[in-house]
What we know:
Blueprint: H1 11-14, E1 29-31, E2 40-42, H2 49-60, E3 66-69, H3 75-86, E4 90-95, E5 103-107, E6 115-118, H4 123-133, E7 139-143, H5 154-163, E8 166-169, E9 177-180, E10 188-192, H6 199-207, E11 215-219, H7 227-239, E12 244-245, E13 251-254, E14 263-265, H8 270-282, E15 286-290, H9 303-309, E16 313-317, E17 320-324, E18 333-335, H10 343-351, E19 357-360, H11 372-382, E20 386-389, E21 394-397, E22 404-406, H12 412-422, E23 428-431, H13 443-451
Parallel strand pairs: 2-15, 3-14, 6-7, 10-11, 18-19, 22-23
Antiparallel strand pairs: 1-23, 3-5, 4-5, 7-9, 8-9, 11-13, 12-13, 15-17, 16-17, 19-21, 20-21
Helix pairs in contact: 2-3, 2-4, 2-7, 4-6, 5-6, 6-7, 8-12, 10-12
Phosphoenolpyruvate (PEP) binds near residues 123, 124, 368 and 439.
Pathway: Metabolic intermediate biosynthesis; chorismate biosynthesis; chorismate from D-erythrose 4-phosphate and phosphoenolpyruvate: step 6/7
EC number: 2.5.1.19
Subunit structure: Monomer.
Amino acid sequence: MPSPxxxxxxxxxxxxxxxxxxxxxxxxxxxxxxxRRPVEADVTLPGSKSLTNRFLVLAALANGPSLxxxxxxxxxxxxxxxxxxxLGAGVDDTTAHGSATPDWVVTPATxxxxxxxxxxxxxxxxRFLPPVAALANGLVxxxxxxxxxxxxxxxxxxxxxxxxxxxxxxxxGTLPFTVHGTGRMPGGSVTLDAxxxxxxxxxxxxxxxxxxxxxxxxxxxxxxxxxxxIEMTVETLRDAGAIVDDGDANTWxxxxxxxxxxxxxxxPDLSNAAPFLAAGLVTSGRVTVPGWxxxxxxxxxxxxxxxxxxxxxxxxxxxxxxxxxxxxxxxxDIDLHDASELTPVVAALAAxxxxxxxxxxxxxxxxHETDRLAALARELGARGAVVTETEDGLRITPRPxxxxxxxxxxxxxxxxxxxxxxxxxxxxxxxxxDTVAKTLPDFVGLWHELxxxxxxxx
Length: 458
Ligand SMILES: O=C(O)C1=C[C@@H](OP(=O)(O)O)[C@@H](O)[C@H](O)C1
Ligand SMILES: C=C(OP(=O)(O)O)C(=O)O
């Protein structure tokens, strides 16, 4: 995959004024605030992207209506909701039920063809919905952002062919492609290589109960990344009444069954919490994220141990997760294979540490929103850190950082990484901050409120 090049980003981003004076959140550049004092705050975060999009898919395939409480409202989840509407389901995102965040009501229906699915850059939409489209009664076309057209899809498309669907792509195994739904899927057994994304397995499992023979998936290849996300899929399926066997390594089986309508509350997004908690460590301050679950399958929960190793005081109570800085930021040697979506924030934190760090086990994130290893090496390096890209990670040696333009490559987590660096790099401007709307549209406002409480949100 080519190294990220700023020209790959959107036209708003390309026309960047790198002026630190331009603080517009949806304009070309965002002058990030420098920390002048320790941060001290409770930061309430919206729901998990991964949970919201799993619940939406299961609800659309269920035997009755579902209620999703505190769902995430962001580009990825709105794309999922719209795609399910286009396939015939009802998704009402306007029901208030007394909370500030409207609950979403999903009403399943016979899935119809003749739909076009816009995936944006959402891995969950482009991977989870082809197996659903195979159940529709007609043709369903898929496409997405320019950057989405290089994200790997081949194993899930090939698996669908083995399981009985007709799928057409241009032979590259990427977007765009067309699924010819026939209203039912035989299902059965399939072997695939999910070393480039756990989402291939989650995708087949989520729709699997609705296939005539269910689905058995065998993985063959290098280890599957992001395993907690597969556990999340298995847990959400079981909670909806499906029968899943994940007892053998690299094999998953879901039986044909009905999926029950859901009444669920979405946990806060723990990966989106990471930059805020990290700010507590970086500024020797204190950040609490209320509502941190005691039990969770979210991979982002790993940030607790990471921050602890890097020198923070970390405590989890009924009130939430509290991270306090101690004045030290230790470098870390960490395998992020299971929690790879934390890499951009951990890499930024490593660039602010007192000693060098190594991040391993994340070769597959070259196929995330951008080639994240190349993007981080380039952007942390440009701001002054010494960064070496390895085959499966990064080596980061901290150095004093300078301000300047931090490119984001249409990657929401690059925006978060840039904001974190900006705490200690006066004059750092994050390019195209609106790209963060993929999972956290309020990020810029929340960040200003954390670092400069009481200041006007840009
Ligand atoms: O299933 C999910 O919700 C996700 C799985 C992971 O994907 P990969 O397995 O491709 O890393 C993760 O990085 C992504 O942010 C969300
Ligand atoms: C990899 C990510 O997203 P996606 O769901 O698009 O794969 C991410 O959010 O870090």
